[in-house]
């Protein structure tokens, strides 16, 4: 892992990851509610979004395993961490583009 070599740092990383990863489950429905003008379509949009996230979840395990195996007999986690970080950054960019399309360039706006 990146800069993590002791038990204390691994536990700290696991706690922080667990705390902040809850956002990936809790935030998308809030975004879709805010971005949907016709409130009767909220349920179908949230369902479709989680269906697409399911494809990413299914592909993430085998994809991560392939990245991890390409580094030889010793497990080098750096490539896998970079893969996860880039995936999160791409998702954040997509959410940002959607928000900009909906609200424009204003930072503090009620959508």
Automatic annotation (TrEMBL):
Q: Which UniProt keywords apply?
A: Membrane, Transmembrane, Transmembrane helix
Q: Which InterPro entries match?
A: MFS_trans_sf (IPR036259)
Q: Which domain of life does the UniProt lineage start with?
A: Eukaryota
- Membrane spanning residue stretches: 6-35, 47-68, 80-98
Question: What Gene3D superfamilies does the record tag this protein with?
Answer: MFS general substrate transporter like domains
Its name, as the record gives it, is: Major facilitator superfamily (MFS) profile domain-containing protein
